[in-house]
Amino acid sequence: MHLWSLELWRLAWLSGVLTLAGLVFGAPGAGLALGLAIYLTLHLRQLHALHHWLTRTPQSEPPVATGIWGALFDRLHTHQKAQAKTQQRLRNTLQRIQDSSEAMNDSVVMLDRRGDLEWWNSAAEAMLGLRPPQDRGQHITNLIRDPRFVAYFDKRAYREPLTLTSPIDDRRMLQFQLTLYGDDERLLMARDITRLHRLEQMRRDFVANVSHELRTPLTVLTGYLETYADHAEQMPPRLARSLGQMQDQAKRMQNLVDDLLMLSRLEIDRPNPHSERVALPPLLEAIQHDAESLSGGRHQIKVTIECDQALRGDPKELRSAISNLAFNAVRYSGEGGHIVLRWRDHPAGAALEVEDDGEGIDPVHIPRLTERFYRVDKGRSTETGGTGLGLAIVKHVLLRHDARLEIASYPHKGAVFRCVFPTQRLVKDTDPAALT
Ligand code: ADP
Predict the structure, then answer these.
(1) Which of 253, 259, 327, 381 to mutate for ligand 1's pocket (most ligand atoms within 8 Å of CB)?
(2) Does domain 104-192 have CATH number 3.30.750.24?
(3) Three-state SS for 106?
(4) Is any ligand 1 atom within 6 A of the Cβ of residue 315?
(5) Are the C-beta atoms of 384 and 337 separated by less than 8 Å?
(6) Hey, which end of the chain has fewer CB within 10 Å, N or C?
(7) CB of 376 shorter than 6 A to ligand 1
(8) CATH match of 276-428 with 3.10.450.50
(9) Quick one: angle between helices 2-24 and 67-103, nearest 10?
(10) Are the C-beta atoms of 366 and 348 separated by less than 8 Å?
(11) How far is the CA of 369 from the centre of ligand 1 (A)?
(12) Domain 198-268: which CATH class?
């Protein structure tokens, strides 16, 4: 405000003095015009100086000026210095981020909103074979062409990582993780998990081999135990009792070995691409029959069919999974319990439910139930002949059939185990040609 009044004073003074001078010469109008012209020229000079400063030498000191122009130059200069400082800070931060990404062993690739490559670190060059500068601006799926990666990229739901072999060396296993950020841009991280993968494979092979090797001695032992049991009446009662216990434990061990082998097979084998059409009614009736034998008439077991579609899958695996659920329903519900095996429509496709009104499960245990050897009550599980592997098998079988397991239960309120199969796993029960 102060500078403005000063400026107005300057204008008034210049035009006043020159009008007066004009008056002396009898031409006050010409005096006023001269005053205004001088004032305008002064401003045009400053405007020219400003333009020159901004376009030619913006980093240099501003032109020297007084009054409102001096203040304007000072303001602009301070603003420019602050701007330059911020830019330098941002440049330093960016450099630090790039340096730290550069120092990482994992690949880091920045993609723009279309999925074109913007920047990557040198680990990405070694791991994914990216070549600067020709790959800059290329679409990521032109460089990592595996259909599983393309599907993962297009899905835009990146909660789970994706494990694939390296596009340049199929002996190396990489774990890819995409993250959406900013304006629909994506960050791709790839980690070399070859060692971890090898260890995991060794663990699987070890369990499979041990279980396999245990089979023969166990068969021999149970064989002898059976022979001795046939002559139990000739033995002293104490020995006969121990023989019974030995047989029970041998049976338990056999179940354990069978379940371990089954799990190993499910983990090692690739899902069968030539799935068969599995009609649910006969399968559920056969399982109902087996469950009734296990129950020994203590439970009422019912099959309900509310869906006319068949499943595309492996009949043996499906039978094993559903049997595990049905046997659990028998084992974890008391005498007089009601069990329903139900095949029904579901918004996602179709669902196979095994429902019981038995002892139920506290919801805190539900998220961990499918872990190997996780039991709510270990004593109870062993007593009913459980191995602790049943639900782990169910989970693996369902994974191989693109299905998911939902568990709803409360203590003393029974339990519902629901296997939800997606539409692409269903075929019309009446249409045998629909099978791939
Ligand atoms: P297990 O051989 O011990 O039954 P599973 O993996 O089949 O092992 O089941 C894990 C645990 O889940 C069981 O120990 C049991 O506590 C619980 N469970 C499974 N099914 C039922 C059910 N129908 N009702 C109540 N609890 C169940």
Answers:
(1) 381
(2) no
(3) coil
(4) no
(5) no
(6) N
(7) yes
(8) no
(9) 140
(10) no
(11) 7
(12) mainly alpha
pTM for this entry: 0.69
- How far is residue 119 CA from its own chain's centroid? 23
In one letter, which amino acid is 285? E
Q: What would the pLDDT profile of 323-361 be if each residue is shown by its tens digit?
A: 999 999 999 999 999 999 999 999 999 999 999 999 999
Which of ligand 1's atoms lies nearest the C-alpha of 378?
14
Distance 192 CA to ligand 1 centre (A): 37
More confident residue, 379 or 328: 328
| Average pLDDT estimate for 376-380 | 82
Residue ID of nearest Cα to ligand 1 atom 13:
375
Taking CA atoms only, the protein residue closest to ligand 1 atom 10 is 375
Q: Ligand 1 in contact with 252 (CB < 6 A)?
A: no
Question: Quick check: CB of 323 below 6 Å from ligand 1?
Answer: no
The tens digit of pLDDT for each residue in 265-302 reads 898 877 765 689 999 999 999 999 999 999 999 999 99
Secondary structure of residue 196 in the 3-state scheme? helix
379, with CB counted inside 10 A (0-12, 13-18, 19+), is exposed
- Is 414 near ligand 1, meaning CB less than 6 Å away? no
As a whole number of angstroms, the distance between CA 89 and CA 334 comes to: 71
Q: Say how far apart CA 2 and CA 9 lie, in whole Å.
A: 11
Q: What is the number of the ligand 1 atom nearest to the C-alpha of 354? A: 23
- Name residue 53's amino acid: W
Ligand 1 center from residue 328 Cα (angstroms): 6
Tell me which residue has its CA closest to atom 14 in ligand 1: 375
| Mean pLDDT across the chain | 90
For residue 143, how many other CB atoms are within 10 A of its CB? Answer: 17
Omega within 30 of 0 (cis) for the link into 281: no
Tokens of 251: 């049976």
